[in-house]
Amino acid sequence: MARVNYFLTEEQEMIVDLARRIATEKIIPVRAALDETGDFPWVIMKELAQSDLFGVFIPEEYGGIGGGCFETCLAVENLAYGCVGVTTTFAASALGGYPILLFGTDEQKACYLPDIASGRRLAAFGLTESSAGSDAAGIQTTAVEDGDSWVLNGTKQWITSGGEADIYTIIAMTDRHKGPRGATAFIVEKGDPGFSFGKKENKMGIRASSTRELVFQDCRISKNRMLGKRGGGFILAMRTLDLARPGIGAIGVGLAQAALDEAVRYAKERVQFGQPIISFQAVQHMLADMATEIEAARALVYAVARTIDSGARDFSKLSAMAKLFPTDMAMKVTTDSVQILGGYGYMKDYPVEKMMRDAKILQIYEGTNQIQRNVIGQALNKEYSVN
Question: What is the pLDDT of residue 346?
């Protein structure tokens, strides 16, 4: 089978092979059951920990593999071939760990990154609130200095791995009068006094991923848990999301590839009017568009990830593109896969209905795709000056 040659190194090929093997052998056999029960996939998380994949983005000095955005994208793409819910749980730990890697002190990195790299402790990222999602400046959670401590009050909503993760990067307001510049980041640990969790949300898709509210009621943490500079929380959050968004695009690519493979297999086996439906031009054209769009999305994600790893400084626009196009594509491809399977596609006996449900969240979390278009459009407005 002809494939695009992305000239992966031997180590990168190993990441691809390892992630795909785990998806095939460990995730796919249980994904329907996990979707039905909503159970947290601890067994698979332990498998991923033993494989060292949790450390793919963490420097070797902290027990990681020393990869970058590109290697992370390779891992999540191939895990998502098995299940987006499981992959979201894996990727959320990177999202929670990125702020520590980017902005942590040497002591904070030494304290937390080895545990994240080994998979001993999962991390999570707490930005969204009931009134502050796309509008990150609308954060209501506060952090107030009290002696040698910070005291947090407020709630965070729809937090991936909430209640399961041990390490949380939380964005709270330390000076509301300064707007976005009044936000600061903190590291909060499960078990800290005053830190609790709401009910587990009952979701349409990614049901193997735990989503809960985080509740802070006079949650007291030591001052050395402040992450980055005071007032630098908004910049920290945006930098984190810029780095993470190509990974969401990669999840979309892996999901879409799985949906296409299911659709092609079915189209070759399903006989109507005396011949397999793949012989009909209408079906061939759908499959051709799906395959082409997947490869285009993969090329975009890989190119942006490699650009980020090359040391690019301002990549917000490219990162938004690498999230926007592949996730819109994944929604279209999974929908078309259901269409090709027809009535069977709508039934839980086949995996494409789950893939379609899972695809929707990719257009929503880590910045809705409408926000990605805003980011891209605003960047273009700055880049093109009117003479």
Answer: 98
